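quick one, two chains, predict together pls
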Amino acid sequence: DSGVTQTPKHLITATGQRVTLRCSPRSGDLSVYWYQQSLDQGLQFLIQYYNGEERAKGNILERFSAQQFPDLHSELNLSSLELGDSALYFCASSAREGQNYGYTFGSGTRLTVV
Amino acid sequence: LAKTTQPISMDSYEGQEVNITCSHNNIATNDYITWYQQFPSQGPRFIIQGYKTKVTNEVASLFIPADRKSSTLSLPRVSLSDTAVYYCLVVPNRDDKIIFGKGTRLHILP
């Protein structure tokens, strides 16, 4: 158990639907990062939050949004889902400013869009 | 962000020492070199991080020459369970996003 909790572990939904993925960071970690991993694209950085504020954006589609709540958990919202959104979505957390601490990843949510 | 180059894949045998080299010619003064390991359908796991010379922990060693333009991850006496993808990353010493490359797919043979 890495200490980063992601729910649900698996999600199957239809095209056009909307889903919410949840991430609870490791205790004490203020930063949360979201990544998407598909077979052909590898690990793609989506977005980062630090203590409730958006810090960095990567290749995140406009149909996707995220937020970090006061209790530091984060949610990734995916809407108007397409078949190509099927992927593993990982959340990672880190302690605070400075990369010295590395990232701790959760076990991911596998999203299947049918 | 400094670009990294590492072999796409490597094969080795159980009990051998495996060295994976990564080149990062454009590394900046404030950059740290970090390695992650990822098993299929699992999130990447932080292995080791260094700035210069040599760093060792219970899992691996990281060798960084003086010019820091490359680094070598050394896995001693690998086992089948070390079969995974290994990512070399160069990240500034600030809370910044990590961009993962393709990594090195290491396959350990019996």
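Chain B is about 0% helix and 50% strand.
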